[in-house]
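hi!! sorry for the late reply, been swamped w classes. u asked for the two structures so here they r. pasted raw, havent cleaned anything up. first the sequence of the first protein and right below it the tokens
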Amino acid sequence: MNRFTVVYDACVLYPAPLRDLLMRLALTDLYRARWSDQIHQEWIGAVLRNRPDLTREQLERTRSLMNAHVRDALVDGYQALIPALELPDPNDRHVLAAAIKCGADLILTFNLGDFPEQVLASYGISACHPDAFMIDQLNLDPENVCIAIRKHRASLKNPPKTVEAYLETMGEQGLEGFTQSVRNYTAEL
């Protein structure tokens, strides 16, 4: 198993299409995916605020499946680190604390400004936008990334998605560069 460790910030776990693709990638062992209960609480809270058609029970089921299927994903014991950390948004300190605790190399987030490079560097951690991260994963192991995409696309049954529709959805998730790069592999998707 690859020891490169990535902490998923809550913003990459909602909306569902990106979360589901990241879960598929986590199962490939290209890297170790990690998160905490507090990160779960954040994305679940955001979904409940924006999607009144979903219930907490449905989202707790998703949370349980994530924890059960991704080996050693749940980070705990980081809470004592939070008070000593300084970030532009104090509400993000728990993400950095979890990353420090589990020896993460990277925080995957859309909110790069919330995780300044100079602060993270002192802990040997970087922050990365999901689009750049996905391009890196594709460049490192196109076969496994394509397998993850194929499995994710095959799981979408209501409605099923063509390759083009799937790539359009991923582009809407903020993965514009990745969707352009992965077009070179459409036959494998």
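now the second protein. again sequence first, tokens right under
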Amino acid sequence: MAMPSSASDEQEEFLTTINTTPLVDVMLVLLIIFLITIPAVTASIKVNLPQENQQRHVIEPESIVLTINAHGNVFLGDTQMHNSTDLTQNLQSLANNRPQPEVQVMGDAATTFQAIGRVLNIAKSVGLSKIHFVTEPRGTLAP
């Protein structure tokens, strides 16, 4: 790179400001176009449309609540499952429903991961795929 050879080269400065005049011109043109086209859109032919009388019938899947207490006991709703076979049979009958129900797993904070994993394996083996864990929001745990 060559060094400036004269005093005029040293006095040249770069323009570091943004020229907003073209931007303002374009925005004003767009504003005028929108102001002209809005009345044309709103001045359409008025039509009295019929009202809908039908209500949508949405089938919501039921929720299966599986609770696992601190001792590893499993409850389906309020009913205690005494062994894995009882839980498998009950979940199998619920898994055949259409739409398939959602499983909400409520595990005690003191329970083991093995107890929760056993319940998840049974739910997966009968074909249940919508499994959610229920937790408490931060700061709401009992002392």
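hope this helps!! also noticed smth abt the second:
The CA atoms of residues 92 and 142 lie 35 Å apart.
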